[in-house]
Amino acid sequence: MVGVLSLYADSAYLFVSAFAWHFFTKLESVEQISKYLGAQSEGAMVTHGRPPSGWPQYGIITFEGSSLVSDAGSYQLHNVWCCIRAQEKVSLSQKQKENC
Description:
This protein is α+β, with helices and mostly antiparallel strands. It is built from one helix and two strands; from the N terminus they run H-E-E.
């Protein structure tokens, strides 16, 4: 009898734990969506005063050991080395890491 009660109690505990984990995971997702919905949008796209579509036809931009530091003093980019040649397209994106 004690073994059966123990089995029931253990099963109930596992069920409640799994339900709570699932509930709080979904709740955190809703919080993230709410935060993103409240974020300010970027400014309007600038369509005037843009360079010609083939610009630049010649030249190169070189970064040699360049770093970008935030207002708080932490490195956002550190010791970057790259060359961007004429008519190459470059895209920078930010991947946010949590708990770093």
